[in-house]
Amino acid sequence: MFDWSDLRVFLAIQRTGSLSAAARTLRVNQTTVGRRLAELEQALGARLFDRLPAGMVLTGAGEELLPHALGVEERALAVERAVSARDSAPSGVVRLTCVESLGSRFLAPRLGELHSRHPGLRLEVLTGSHVLDLTRRESDLALRLGKPVEPGLASRKLGRMGFALYGTRALLGARPPVHVEDARGIPLLAFDESLAHLPESRWLAKVMGEAVPVLRSNSTSVLFEAALAGLGLAVLPCWLAEGSGLMRVGAAGEGVEREMWLAVHPDLRRVARIRAVADFLAGLIAREGPRLAGASA
Q: Does the keyword Transcription regulation apply (predicted)?
């Protein structure tokens, strides 16, 4: 008889495609993942994955096991959510996912207020462009730029975030461009191709034509620091750029806005610790609303 927890290992490998990535997801070492998979395969008497150069690929036996493993996972998570919902005090771990710039430069300096209110909370802030799955408890709360599209989530709009084009005074000269299009020819900084789908990336490509950026990055923080150093113009969140010494390019209304949404699994939204963090975020964003939206966005 196999250990039911080995199914978590099986699903992690299937979702990530490798032992090392599964180990990072499960927060264990790669040796443990390999051992647990071997034990599961021995217990079932079947090889579940083919180890190919491109990664771990399900065998026929693995394909047959997959829907059953997903069903067990969903039932286990439902039990976990039901038990969590009985919490009465805002204490324990809450995992929040958001984009890197929001987490490091906006939220982190303000989390002391949350800790003062609820010292029993332990917050984990996970940043990056990868969207974590709330239904599988990869995260408890998600602060996203754009309305969540996954089915079955409870979400609410918290506010707006404005983006505009910024550069140093030295780069823009004594007479800064009146309109964004007038800045064509000035060195440009932009997101890399992996983030070309973002509204701010599409807007920049539209207004700057065929300009080739001198720097591309998947990090807002990298673009911000490069813009501060005078390397080029960058589309940045207004709350990040204003007051930094950078000058805004273009007139009021020349920029782009994105909606800020908070998402949670509906079974967890009444859990005290999660509700406490959600209420804090909603209040913080409402209070900082004009700054986040950009006074001239």
A: yes
Q: Is 70 exceeded by the pLDDT of residue 32?
A: yes
Q: What is the pLDDT of residues 258-293, one digit of tens each?
A: 999 999 888 787 888 999 999 999 999 999 988 898
Report angle CA 8, 9, 15 to the nearest 5 degrees: 90
Backbone angles phi, psi at 291, to 5 degrees: -70, -40
* Tens-digit pLDDT profile for residues 177-228: 888 888 888 999 999 998 999 999 999 999 888 888 999 999 999 999 999 9
Go through the domains of the chain in sequence order and give each one's CATH number.
6-84 (1.10.10.10), 92-159+258-293 (3.40.190.10), 161-257 (3.40.190.10)
